[in-house]
Amino acid sequence: MSDSEQTVYAKRTKTIHYGSLEESDRWHVDRKDNETDGSGKTDYSQLTTADYLSLDEDVAKEKAALLEEFERRKKARLIHVSTDDGEVKSALRKLNEPICYFGEGPADRRLRLKELLSALGEKGLPAAKPAKEEEKPKNQQKETNESTWYHEGPESLRVARFWIANYSLARAKKRLEEASEKVRQHSATKAGRMVELQKHIQQLAPQCSQVGDTRPITGCSINEDSTLLLTCSLSSLCKVWSVPDCTLKQTLRGHTFNVSDVAFRPGVANDSKSEVAMASCSFDGSVKLWSYDSEESIADINGHVPHRVSKLAFHPSGRFLGTACYDASWRLWDLEQKQEVLHQEGHTKAVHCIAFQVDGSVCVTGGLDGFGRVWDLRTGRCIMFLEGHLSAIYGVDFSPNGYHIASGSQDNSCKIWDLRRRQMVYTIPAHTNLISDVKYQKNGGNFLVTSSYDKTAKIWSDKTWQPLKTLSGHDGRLVGIDISHDSQYIVTASYDRTFKLWAWD
């Protein structure tokens, strides 16, 4: 057997070093110089007990230094430093430190400030306080920007607010008296009426189906006495039809772009002349007012261009017109003063729909930001924030009871809100596609109708929100719906260029 085969190799032990090795190496070099004689060999016989004690003291000092470093890093992590680079530079300047090193970024600079504050201890903290104090006004300013803000309005707005207050108080008194009478009615009487109403709803059938235009129909409205129907379409035309035979009576020409919505003005007789009886709005921002005796508009409302006006609604008094605009605002126009009295902002995205309460004291708006807001027209304040939908709101409406609000959204749901409690009370998983519009029964609020892009409209009972009837038959998505004031007719408008009039058999 050779000598190489008999050789036994010793395995070298692995040494783990903690922290920096600079001090440890320097100590070993000095110790080697002191313990080595001229021959280059270490004389271990000269080591004394004091040398061993000094070695233990050095190890203890290294451990203490490591613990101190760990505590300093922990303290640095707990120190809060502003993320604003300008404030970090200001804090470094107050500490008499360079505000920037070559190649140093904002994150590195912020880390350096933390290291300095941790090393200075309590002495360095007061110098960093101004940086924190400067953050407070900015945070307050950010909160102010996110909240609803108001600006001073013209004298015409003050006149309009006083008029609305006097008008709405009388109507609110009458509504509360009617509500008290309903409460005093016997429960069996109310239950019988509900059963009878549900039977009528089950008998709903198409009374008339009419091709309304050569382009998709985008909106519809029925007048107060349930004798006329107004439709609009993407062909820029608005048409007036008779009810229930759906005969064309008048074509309104004047828009040059797609018309998005129409509405009848309350309190105007069918035989009136040269009086504003109808209103329409367009994608190009134009709003036109129409009369029964002319096919041309008698007045134009300017101020929205070039932003789209998606929906409009008349105040219950007929004096004011509300418009929802895609510049994230809604407007209130006084037809007697013939000017805009309110330009209200508050939504973060386009405002798509608007509806007035039956008293005329408040209105509700819905936007593409997925939120709704209830506005007090007498004070201008936002008195309720509708938060709960997951996507844009395309339809809102007030119940005749004055405190229930329905909202339809792109999230396929319809939510019911209580103005008295200022919260949502129910969510109806109504359709399989987005809800384009919602409407309450006008003379009682006993049922709610929703229209959807799933080509159907559905009727829901009040209080229980159970489905009562599904109105199907359109070949395209439904974009508009309305209920007559006497609850005899329901009209649906669709992208299949037709509208259907539903009535009781």
Automatic annotation (TrEMBL):
Q: What Gene Ontology biological process does one annotation of this record name?
A: mRNA splicing, via spliceosome
What's a Gene Ontology MF term here? U6 snRNA binding
Print the keywords alphabetically: Repeat, WD repeat
In this chain the Pre-mRNA processing factor 4 (PRP4)-like domain maps to 83-137
Q: Which domain of life is it from?
A: Eukaryota
Write down any Gene Ontology CC term.
U4/U6 x U5 tri-snRNP complex
Provide the residue intervals of the WD repeats: 252-300, 309-343, 344-385, 386-427, 428-470, 471-505
Where are stretches of biased composition, namely Basic and acidic residues? Answer: 130-145
Disordered: annotated segments: 124-150
Its name, as the record gives it, is: Pre-mRNA processing factor 4 (PRP4)-like domain-containing protein
